[in-house]
Amino acid sequence: MKNKSWWNKYSFLWVTGIFFLVSFIGHWIFAWYAFVEEQTAHAQPVEFSAYLVEVLRDTLENWQSEFLQLMWQVAGLAFLFHVGSPQSKEGDDRKEEKLDLILMALDETEGRRVIQALDKKYPRK
Q1: Is the pTM of this model over 0.85?
Q2: What stretches of the chain show up as alpha helix (H) in DSSP?
Q3: Distance in angstroms (rounded) separating the CA atoms of residues 66 and 57
Q4: How far is the C-alpha of 68 from the C-alpha of 58, rounded, in Å?
Q5: In sequence order, which residues have a C-beta less than 8 Å from that of residue 7 and are 6 or more positions away?
Q6: Nearest to 25 by CA among 36, 17, 37, 14
Q7: In the prediction, which pLDDT does 5 show?
Q8: CA separation, residue 102 to residues 48, 92, 96 (Å)
Q9: How far apart are CA 54 and CA 34, in angstroms?
Q10: How many Cα neighbours within 13 Å face the side chain of 95?
Q11: How many other β-carbons are positioned within 10 Å of the β-carbon of residue 23?
């Protein structure tokens, strides 16, 4: 198999990055127009520093409520799965027993040998 280029190998990352940049830039552009309209409606001066504070606040508030929540769900689930929570092990014992029975049904002597070798290499919990 031919080595994929860095661009092809990480295509999901590139697409996600493009979506992020387009949405981020779009958010800031439309926030600017909304800020200018609001300031004009209240007869206030349009100052970039006030806009920057407001848009940064809105951006971080949005990231906190959406991005960080989602990241905790993904990272928390991955962590709990990794440390072996009961939810991550549902059905594993049953699957192992089925595989043991299949190995024994195919060839009892060889099946026992394979099961013992696997148990030695990967001890059951």
Answers
A1: no
A2: 6-9, 11-41, 48-62, 69-83, 92-106, 108-121
A3: 14
A4: 14
A5: 14
A6: 17
A7: 82
A8: 71, 15, 10
A9: 11
A10: 5
A11: 10
Mean pLDDT of 110-114: 91
Q: Answer whether residue 3 shows pLDDT above 90.
A: no
Question: Positive or negative, the Cα torsion across 60, 65, 68, 70?
Answer: negative
Please write the tens of the pLDDT for every residue from 24-80: 999 999 999 999 999 999 999 999 999 999 999 999 888 888 877 887 888 877 777
Averaged pLDDT of the chain: 85
Question: Is the CB of residue 32 less than 8 Å from the CB of residue 39?
Answer: no
Cα(34)–Cα(46) distance, integer angstroms: 11
**Alpha-carbon distances, residue 50 vs 58, 59, 106 (angstroms):** 12, 14, 75
